[in-house]
Design a protein that fits this description.
alpha+beta, Ribosomal Protein S5, domain 2, Alpha-Beta Plaits, 2 domains, 8-stranded antiparallel beta sheet, binds adenosine-5'-triphosphate, binds L-homoserine
Length: 308
């Protein structure tokens, strides 16, 4: 049997709309992500279990992990014998934590291992991005590649091998707070402007290229000083109850950056010490999340998708 874990991720990472994403590892060792198990069976079987299974359509055909299995059998490994594929759905849907990417990445990585198809990294990433595009209302890689490869990834169609890994300060801590309600990614994309002015396009290019270069040359504080989301956050913040209040309250507790993870409603902070992250997490627990929400202090998951 093959068992694969794929981690949650922060899409956009503030400065890189659709182009920069980071995989998350809670520092308490919690596995914040989906697990897919593939084993031999008499006939193809799909099982969806886990804390958030009941939030997905009851019909297997509408489940992305099952769709990955069908696609894999039809187009990648037609001679693969029958399997049982179980998705343990541990991430909330529409959370901004790359939940659909997690299922897709875990499913294709597990199937590739089980069938020994040895797809190249780029082939797998393309396949994963095709499926992510089905539900999110746009083809973007910023959950797929960090989830698959780990770390912080500068990623997209134009980029050689689809992704370049960027370093971060290993003293940075990230607080990820899911408030407990969902925000559909396609809806959160529909509120964005369809076009950017010349000024905004140039500024976006400058910010992302400078941020990446500063990280690559180890100038981490300078990178933080220009880390802000001028593209998506202003349009999405009004959709997320409590975000504006959190954004103005958290710097007092040591948050260097407060922004939206992916399409939201998960909020993330970057903090330069564990103590600051703990204070931010305490505030978020008291003020941002409801009974269905959760909050984790994280560092980056450098391993990405792996066999358990
Ligand atoms: N295995 C799956 N995991 C997540 N969503 C799935 C899955 N299978 C089908 N879906 C459907 O795909 C849609 C995912 O919606 P959406 O893109 O808003 O969520 P998301 O990927 O969880 O968001 P985010 O990337 O912000 O975490 C939902 O309609 C959900 O029912
Ligand atoms: N970059 C995507 C991530 C979706 O999780 C967006 O912001 O819409």
């Amino acid at each position: 049997m093959i068992r694969v874990y794929a981690p949650a991720s922060i899409g956009n990472f503030a400065v890189g709309f659709d182009a920069l994403g980071a995989a998350l590892a809670p520092i308490d060792g919690t596995l914040l992500g989906d697990v897919v198990e593939v084993s031999a069976a008499e006939q193809d079987t799909f099982v969806c279990s886990g804390d958030y299974a009941h939030k997905l359509p009851a019909n297997a055909e509408e489940n992305l992990a099952y769709q990955c299995l069908i696609h894999f059998k039809e187009h990648v490994a037609p001679t693969m014998p029958a399997v049982k594929l179980e998705l343990k759905k541990n991430l909330p849907i529409g959370s901004g934590l790359g939940s659909s990417a997690c299922s897709v990445v875990a499913a294709f990585a597990a199937l590739d291992k089980f069938a020994e198809t040895n797809l190249s990294q780029e082939q797998l990433i393309e396949l994963m991005a095709d499926f992510e595009a089905i539900v999110s209302g746009g083809r973007h890689y910023d959950n797929i590649t960090p989830c698959y490869l780990g770390g912080l990834q500068l990623t997209g169609e134009l980029i050689p091998n689809k992704s370049i890994s960027l370093p971060v300060d290993n003293q940075w801590y990230y607080v990820a707070a899911f408030p407990g309600f969902s925000l559909n990614t396609a809806k959160a994309r529909s509120v964005l402007p369809k076009q950017l002015s010349m000024h905004d396009s140039v500024e976006f290019a400058q910010r992302l290229s400078a941020f990446s270069s500063l990280l690559l040359t180890g100038r981490f504080d300078a990178a933080l000083s220009i880390m802000s989301d001028e593209i998506a956050e202003p349009h999405r913040a009004p959709l997320i109850q409590g975000f504006a209040e959190a954004k103005s309250a958290l710097p007092e507790f040591g948050a260097e950056i407060v922004s939206i993870s992916g399409a939201g409603p998960t909020l993330f902070t970057v903090c330069k010490s564990l103590e600051a992250a703990q204070k931010c997490a305490a505030w978020l627990n008291d003020n941002y999340i409801n009974e269905q929400g959760f909050c984790h202090i994280c560092q980056l998951d450098q391993l990405g998708t792996r066999q358990l």
